[in-house]
């Protein structure tokens, strides 16, 4: 007997025997549901035998037999009704547990998000890919057969998705391309650090999505609910199905604000802010200007996160402003880093450490933010240092800049496209999916071991575009991605440490050292960040003009 718990209320199991009922009762279950028809196999006990054994130990039993592969909408409704009528928790069983898991999934579709259903059944060991359309459709069998069909479907209208669409059109006109994204506004997220530092106005970092999607690309303004890669299909909210010849997956990642207890309730007030949100970055600047003394905490969660340097960039720009205001010596600046190093590429650390010293900031490694009490202005961290007992530390604060934990979006993590950690599983050179050869991915959502930055997406877009077009023409991959990422570390107003690197931490500078030495703070690098990169983003990258993007060709040999 094998218990496979889905929720506290329902567990499913392969076939049970009368002798198992005592153990089931002792495990805390109060009722059982049989979803296997009698006589399906010669060695199978009848429901009458199971029911008699259940009655002896004080368990209620119900018989809802389902023929394998034929779970009807009515069956799912009956299962849901049984769960409300029977005392819980309930154990449901069939031959393997799959029918029972399917019945629960369909009966829960009206009350739970599809990603929640898929993640719970996946954790229990059951793949619901075969009924995902019905789950998305509220547990009902879809009747709409008018599926849209495109040469290329792109999921995600952020930097990576729009850049990929534009780069493809630069190489091949006439393709039927659809871009799926429910958002009305597209943001230049690299600019939010500058907003929080009082350099940019927030409005300059936002444009309407409709103004940026390339001409000729069909914009499907909807959210993705699930993928059916074996059927070349994407299922949208509302159960609309979009078919494709080739798929590009680039929805970015999920900022998991709710993973920190109490954070959501206090964001934007009580001195709690974040440059990772458009509406909060201006509040960062308000707090910086208003703080004359006290303690300022800057947090960094476990990797991976988008723009790994952003948490400390917020600290440096804030400290530089306090320095200019003449109050730096009255402010206790602390950097609370869940990791064990200031920056992942050691070549840039000495320059950064000099600014940590200049601003009198204290570095606290292995400190991960787990809770915030906004009204009390207290932040609690879990400390997991090597060779030490885990402990918790609570600090008072006057200003708290939070970088939220980050994961792949729910609909990606539970999909057949994901690796064990939940990221889209690609070849790190060609960015083609390792299992499904008509799928590519780029941007923050895929699992190549590179920094998750806009500069990385700028380099990845032509790689994916060239390789997709080559595949259409029947050729192999043409370009390869070397892991390039760039992190302009704003250490003070007017100077930046321009970190540029690829796979394995290899330095990949775009400029000769005599012009910009990335290992030293540079005025030219600041001008690049402030004046050059925004127009490169809006006018080049998103329009398929691949300036500052030179991917490596794959050698013919």
Automatic annotation (TrEMBL):
Q: Name one Pfam family in it.
A: BLH_phosphatase
Which residue ranges does the record assign to the FAD/NAD(P)-binding domain? Answer: 150-254
SUPFAM superfamilies the record matches? FAD/NAD(P)-binding domain (SSF51905)
User: What does the record give under GO molecular function?
Assistant: FAD binding; hydrolase activity; quinone binding; sulfide:quinone oxidoreductase activity
Native organism is Salibaculum griseiflavum
List this protein's GO terms for biological process: sulfide oxidation, using sulfide:quinone oxidoreductase
The residues covered by the Beta-lactamase hydrolase-like protein phosphatase-like domain are 3-110
> Which PANTHER family does the UniProt record give?
SULFIDE:QUINONE OXIDOREDUCTASE, SULFIDE:QUINONE OXIDOREDUCTASE, MITOCHONDRIAL
Q: Does the keyword Isomerase apply?
A: no
Q: Which cofactors is this protein said to need?
A: FAD
Q: What is this protein called?
A: TIGR01244 family phosphatase
Q: Which residues cross the membrane?
A: none
Q: What keyword terms does UniProt attach to this protein?
A: FAD, Flavoprotein, Oxidoreductase, Quinone, Transit peptide
Listed InterPro entries: BLH_phosphatase-like, FAD/NAD-bd_sf, FAD/NAD-binding_dom, Prot-tyrosine_phosphatase-like, Sulphide_quinone_reductase
